[in-house]
Amino acid sequence: MELVGEEKRIQALFSELRLVDEQTSPSFVAVWNRAQSRTYRPQKAFNLAFVAATALLVCALVSLALWSRQWQRNPDALVNLPSVPTVVPTQVPMGISEVTPTPAQKGVGVSAKSRALKLAARRQSLLVAANRKATHEAKTLASWESPTATLLDSPIDELLKSLPQLNQTVDELKSFLPSSPK
């Protein structure tokens, strides 16, 4: 009957554990009352994270609206391509650089005028060169063809793109069709 003694010892250990658990754990009534009191407490009207996310979303939408409005006004604003004005080359009259200065203008006025004329001529030549380059690039882009465009052509394209004439007979139309085995 050793089993009986072992069994009593196990029951005694379990009862000790139950007593320790009852002393350390809170009662059900106390836990239930605390849970009930928390449900009746009013919640905060605004959560800080929700407010921040909403403000960020509103700012993003406003900036997108302003950006799209600006882009609709000036679609070239996104692409910063320099615009090259069309300039017709003109020649500077020869008599301008040979102006004789008055005594008050001697030394200062002539060199400033000649520098201004040289600078204008240099700018004009640069603009003419830029116009030529832009024209050449535009012609190159306009004449571009796909390297695979010829692969899409077929010998019967003309037949498929045209309608039969009313005066053609059925035999003439059959001559265009591939021969079928009978």
Notes on the structure:
This protein has 6 helices and no strands. With 182 residues, it is mainly alpha-helical. The protein has helices spanning 2-24, 28-40, 48-73, 109-142, 157-161, 170-174. The radius of gyration is 47 Å and the shape is elongated.
Summarize the structure.
The protein has 182 residues and is mainly alpha-helical. It has helices at residues 2-24, 28-40, 48-73, 109-142, 157-161, 170-174. The longest helix is centred in the C-terminal third of the chain and has 34 residues, at 109-142.
Shape, principal axes of CA atoms: elongated
Structural class: mainly alpha
Q: N-to-C SSE series?
A: HHHHHH
- Measured as a percent range, the helix fraction is 55-70%
Spans of at least 5 consecutive residues whose pLDDT stays below 50 are: 95-99
- Calculate the mean pLDDT score and round it: 77
Biggest sheet architecture: none
What is the helix tally?
A: 6
Keywords:
182 residues, mainly alpha, 6 helices
Secondary-structure map:
Layout: H1 2-24, H2 28-40, H3 48-73, H4 109-142, H5 157-161, H6 170-174
